[in-house]
Design a protein that fits this description.
Structural class: alpha/beta
Helix content: 40-55%
Strand content: 5-15%
Organism: Streptomyces albus
Strand order of the largest sheet: 11-12-10-13-14-9-15
Oligomer: single chain
Keywords: ATP-binding, Helicase, Hydrolase, Isomerase, Nucleotide-binding
GO molecular function: 3'-5' DNA helicase activity; ATP binding; DNA binding; hydrolase activity
Largest sheet: 7 strands, mixed
Enzyme class: isomerase
Radius of gyration: 28 Å
Number of helices: 28
Family: Belongs to the helicase family. UvrD subfamily.
Number of strands: 15
Distance between the termini: 58 Å
Length: 732
């Protein structure tokens, strides 16, 4: 096992403090044993920073140097905090608090509010948007959904940077913000939003930090109580700290210096929310006697992936670039990164889905594959393409594992079976713990083989299958464990949000992928205007987009594909350019290419390989799509699908449209997939307008591709002809 490789799922806790240090590389060991004074860990992607800091805490606790209840480890997401708690528990460091900034502050605020202010803490508003919308209406501003979202984000930025409404216009200009509304209008909405909260006696997410900081500043006695409770602090992802979080951290620490911070300036990708790497880069200035350790041994990615990541940052500019870490891969060589160019976005999605399907067929687990994009709006076309290819997928950022209804139901039946013990007839033929779990979860929908397709039925099965795999791992690690022991373990994991993995290709934005890793990663939609995003104007904003691509590249352990499309929709003008960030990494990626897919892998010296890209089709020069009513050239995907302008007269056969809708719902139910995985609403509308009378006419409708033509063509043509579909045996 390499030094930074994750431990087995259920390792035995080390039997001594010295045993905690076993398996750490020299730099990680230096981090783990630096337990006094300020410590700054500069940790590159894949270098085992979480391993280093959790072993540091565990070593300090097991050696009797750090009191468990006196340690507060803070990070930025519930997932990261849950992972940290899980690792600390595995290392035998019980009682250590690992929380997000907000959850730690909220806990303190709830405890001290009656003493500092009196009464109960006002309720927390989980969604700002309705109040922001009301404030805007009172200011006589009409906002569409996008403007409301952007204005809400702007208010959040103002609060975490500790900017009051009257100072917002000047602060926004100084920071180079691309405000969604006139700064004076934004300031008015911001002020009225704060007034509405006061009138209704509610607080928001940022108020939790602001109020906690205010109480600690105003009440020396409360500040002293907190500092007596926590004597040692660890801050993960320190490059993402906002000015408000830094203020709160300084109040927690006080005049002491038992502070360990961990971060990487090259992974600063949240400055739009107020985060800044300055606190990390200035740490040694504030703490001249700090111990500084650099982690550069990359245990995650192959030399080929690491070389590309280093090369990307080699062209970076600015302060973060001056402190970049040159990673050194510790893995064996793997395949070269692949570059793929497609004619249009649907072709890119289909090509990506084919390559994903081929990888799964070759033995790569679906859960070890990710498709990453710049913005969430890009996900739909990849959901559809993967569904068409019969590949299960999951959207990152969806419901937490332990909050899923099927997981809660599984807990209930497992707990009931554990209480019943040998009196449960369901377990009569179960010879061991895994077979007991399979028998119990079989009553809730788990089967040895997964259901076909994707959708809600497959999602439910994947959740139950994750619990079955977890039971097998637990039984292997703990021979003789009972069902009651497993239930106890699951309860502990639920409390710490230490979820098992779910098998399915991950779809996620680059921001949501931070902190995660997969065997194979597809970075899609890499065009200028998307990455860097079109509203990135300043040098600092462009460099942050470069760092975002760096984060995406470093998510891949072994297989990496970077792709782009020259047009948005079939028949569109191929005027897009590959991302400027690729120009210096892949010769030819920054200039128009010749007909045929500009694909292949990059050799070590940057030469293009003649080996064609598996799964990528040659670019076809399609005729532009034109409206069948007025003849105008169409570019919007929805209009291309309908073959008419949105506002041109429709020739809809409403009876056929209703029959198609009913048929689609029945097909989706049979397949256990969402309706859109059969055909989207736009495709049904296009069919009901065109009323095709043969396969050729049906195939000309965008959205009816060869696989769907083969699967559903006969039914659709029969419906278009006014025929009744034959009833299947299971319907009789």
């Amino acid at each position: 096992m390499t030094a930074a490789t994750d431990s087995p799922l259920f390792p035995q806790a080390p039997d001594s403090a010295d045993a905690v240090l076993e398996g750490l590389d020299p730099e990680q060991r230096e981090v783990a044993t630096a337990l006094h004074g300020p410590v700054c860990v500069l940790a590159g992607a894949g270098t085992g920073k979480t391993r280093a800091i959790t072993h540091r805490i565990a070593y300090g606790v097991r050696a009797g140097i750090l009191p468990p209840a006196g340690v507060l480890a803070v990070t930025f997401t519930q997932r990261a905090a849950g992972e940290m708690r899980g690792r600390l528990r595995q290392l035998g460091a019980h009682g250590v608090q690992a929380r997000t900034f907000h959850s730690a502050a909220l806990r303190q605020l709830q405890f001290f509010w009656p003493r500092a202010v009196g009464g109960e803490l006002p309720p927390l508003v989980e969604r700002k948007a309705p109040l922001v919308a009301e404030a805007a209406t009172r200011c006589r501003l009409r906002l569409d959904r996008t403007e409301l979202r952007d204005l809400t984000s702007e208010i959040e930025w103002a609060k975490v940077t500790q900017t009051v409404p009257e100072d917002y216009p000047a602060a926004s200009a100084k920071a180079g913000r691309d405000a969604p509304r006139d700064p004076a209008e934004t300031a008015r909405v911001y002020a009225l939003y704060e007034q509405l909260k006061r009138e209704r006696s509610v607080i928001d997410f940022e108020d939790v930090l602001l109020l906690t900081a205010a109480i600690l500043e105003d009440r020396a006695d409360i500040a002293e109580t907190v500092r007596n409770q926590y004597q040692h602090f660890v801050v993960d992802e320190y490059q993402d700290v906002s000015p408000l979080q830094q203020r709160l951290l300084e109040l927690w620490v006080g005049e002491r210096d038992n502070l360990c911070v961990v971060g990487d300036a090259s992974q600063t990708i949240y400055s739009f929310t107020g985060a800044t790497a300055d606190h990390l880069l200035d740490f040694r200035t504030r703490h001249p006697d700090a111990t500084v350790v650099k982690l550069v041994r990359d245990y995650r990615s192959t030399p080929q992936v690491v070389h590309l990541a280093n090369a990307l940052l080699g062209h970076a500019r600015g302060r973060a670039a001056e402190h970049r870490l040159e990673l050194v891969s510790q893995r064996e060589a793997g395949p070269e990164p692949v570059y793929a160019e497609y004619a249009d976005e649907p072709a890119e999605a289909e090509g990506t889905a084919r390559r994903v399907r081929d990888l799964i067929a070759s033995g790569v687990p679906a859960g070890e594959i990710a498709v990453l994009y710049r913005i969430n709006a890009q996900s739909e076309i990849y959901e559809q393409a993967l569904a068409d290819a019969g590949v299960p997928c999951q959207l990152r950022g969806a419901e937490r594992f332990f909050e899923r209804p099927e997981v809660k139901e599984a807990f209930v039946v497992l707990r009931g079976a554990a209480r019943a013990g040998g009196n449960d007839a369901l377990l009569d033929d179960a010879v061991d713990l895994p077979s007991q779990v399979r028998a119990v979860l079989g009553t809730k929908g788990w089967t040895p083989q997964p259901p076909a397709g994707s959708g809600a039925v497959r999602d439910r099965w994947e959740s139950l299958a994750a619990l079955v795999r977890l039971a097998g791992d637990f039984a292997t690690a703990h021979p003789g464990a009972t069902l009651a022991d497993l239930v106890t373990e699951l309860d502990e994991r639920a409390r710490s949000q230490h979820a098992p993995t779910v098998d399915g290709v991950t779809l996620a934005s680059l921001h949501a992928a931070k902190g995660l890793e997969w065997d194979a990663v597809f970075l899609v939609g890499l065009t200028d205007g998307m990455l860097p995003i079109t509203y990135a104007k300043t040098d600092d904003q462009i460099e942050e987009e470069r760092r975002l691509l760096y984060v995406g590249i470093t998510r891949a352990r072994r297989i990496l594909t970077l792709s782009w499309a020259l047009a948005r929709s079939p028949g569109g003008r191929p005027g897009r350019q590959p991302s400027r960030f690729l120009k210096d990494l892949h010769p030819g990626a920054g200039t128009p290419s010749s007909p045929g897919a500009a694909t292949g892998s990059v050799e070590g010296g940057g030469r293009r390989s003649a080996r064609p890209l598996s799964g990528a089709r040659p670019r076809l020069h399609r005729a532009p799509a034109r409206c069948r009513v007025c003849g105008r050239t169409l570019t919007a995907p929805g209009e291309v699908k309908l073959m008419r302008c949105e506002d041109c007269p429709s020739e809809l056969d409403e009876v056929l449209y209703e029959r198609l809708h009913q048929w689609r719902a029945e097909q989706a139910a049979l397949l256990g997939q969402p309706d859109y995985c059969v055909f989207t609403d736009k495709t049904l509308l296009a069919i009901a307008e065109a009323v095709p009378d043969d396969e050729a006419a049906l195939a000309r409708i965008s959205g009816v591709r060869s696989r769907k033509l083969q699967q559903f063509g006969a039914d659709v043509l029969a419906l278009c002809a006014g025929e009744e579909l034959p009833r299947k045996e299971e319907d009789i």
